[in-house]
Amino acid sequence: MRISDIIKEKKSTLSFEIFPPKSDVALDMDYILGKLAALKPDFISVTNSAGGNGAASGTAEIARLIKTKYNTESIMHLVCSDATKADIEAKLATAENYGIDNILALRGDKVNRPDSDFCYAKDLIKIIDGNKFCIGAAAYPEGHIDSPSLDADIEYLKQKVDSGADFLTTQLFFDNSLFFEFLEKIKKRGIDTYVLCGIMPVLSKAQINRMIFMCGVSLPGKMVKILNKYENSTDDLIKASIEYASVQIEELLKHGVDGIHIYTMNKPEIAERIIAGLRTI
Ligand code: FAD
Question: For the chain, how many structural domains are there in total?
Answer without folding.
Answer: 1
